[in-house]
Amino acid sequence: MSIRTDIALEKHGFLTKKHRNGVKVDKWKKNNIKIVRVKIENPDGEKSMGKPIGKYYTVDLPEFSHESELLDIRLTVLTDIIKELLPENSKSFLVAGLGNENITPDALGPLCAKKIFSTRHFENFMELKQNLPELNPVASISTGVLGQTGIETSEYIKGIVRFVKPDAVIIIDALACCTLSSLGKTVQLSDTGITPGAGVGNFRKTIDKSTLGVPVVTMGVPTVMDLEKDDNMIVTPKDIDTIISRAANLLALSINCALQPKLQPETFLALS
Fold first, then answer.
1. Distance CA 107, CA 104 (A)
2. Residue 16 has what pLDDT?
């Protein structure tokens, strides 16, 4: 059975030592949160990993079904990584939630997009009325999937980017993994874009800087994995509803904090 996973750290674990040239792995902890950065540095690493050159962060978290707190070290870690991956001096953003809201394991992107603090339309009115500081323009969308819209997700986002002209795009999508230790317990962030559906063998057009014309940061949580010894079936945790809901809350809040650094997390919770 072929290994199907969106998680760069998992792919690296299956490489033999001689195939790890061009791939650098760094590990550290912040409080009790384990962070791993896989950096693909050259074409050799790109070929062996089957992923583009760039940085892939994996953040190990308590299982989302067991942890509902938002204002803790997990939020700080995710917010800091998003800031690090975004281009320097970027001020305007498009946040896109990928997936099908009607299929629970695929609903992370749409649910997260609903919780993004969209400000592009404010034109200073809200800042004045609520005594808020000047806010960065943020737009958010939920793309749906090709079977619903008849439009490739990459085409949908590209058309909006041409009109909105953001400095960067952040994409949220549910991911596939190949180990139980990742399922519903990790967040992957990268600066390389995404190929929707790749983890489950349903490849769509890639969404990255070359296709959109602006830098792309991606975030995702593994919500499905192959059933062992049967690559025609995938499995998802029994408490996937809770995992998706809590993961969407945490990812959205970390994005909001990264894009509007002048506001406190409590402000976003009060506004939601």
1. 5
2. 81
Q: CB burial class (10 A; 0-12, 13-18, 19+) of residue 208? A: buried
Paired tokens of 194: 């995404």
Q: What per-residue confidence (pLDDT) applies to 131?
A: 63
- Tokens at residue 269, please? 């919770």
Among 183, 167, 163, which Cα is nearest to 175's?
183
Burial class from Cβ neighbours inside 10 Å (0-12, 13-18, 19+) for residue 63 reads middle
E strands, the chain, in order: 23-30, 33-40, 54-60, 93-98, 138-144, 168-177, 186-190, 216-227, 230-235
Asked whether residue 87 carries a pLDDT value surpassing 90, the answer given is yes
CB 135 within 8 A of CB 182: no
Residue 163 has pLDDT above 80, yes or no: yes
CA quadruple 266, 268, 270, 272: dihedral positive or negative?
Answer: negative
Mean pLDDT of the chain: 89
In this structure, what token pair is assigned to residue 97? 């939630």
**pLDDT higher than threshold 90 for residue 169:** yes
* pLDDT, position 199: 46
Cα gap 126→121, rounded to integer Å: 9
